[in-house]
Amino acid sequence: MHTLRKRTYVATTPERAWAFLSNPANLDAITPDDMAFEIVSALPERMFEGQLVEYRVRIPLLGRRTWVSELKHLRPNESFVDEQKIGPYRFWYHYHGIEPAEGGVWLVDEVSYAAPFGPLGKLANILFIRRTLERIFAYREAAFARLLTPQPDGSRPSAGGMA
Question: What is the CATH number of the domain that holds 7?
Answer without folding.
Answer: 3.30.530.20
